[in-house]
Amino acid sequence: MAIIMCLAVPGRVEKIDGDFAEVDFGGVRKKVCVTLLPGLQVGEYVIVHTGYAIEKLDPEEAKKTLALFDEMARIQAEMDN
Question: Concatenated DSSP letters for 32-59?
Answer without folding.
Answer: EE-TTSTT--TT-EEEEETTEEEEEE-H
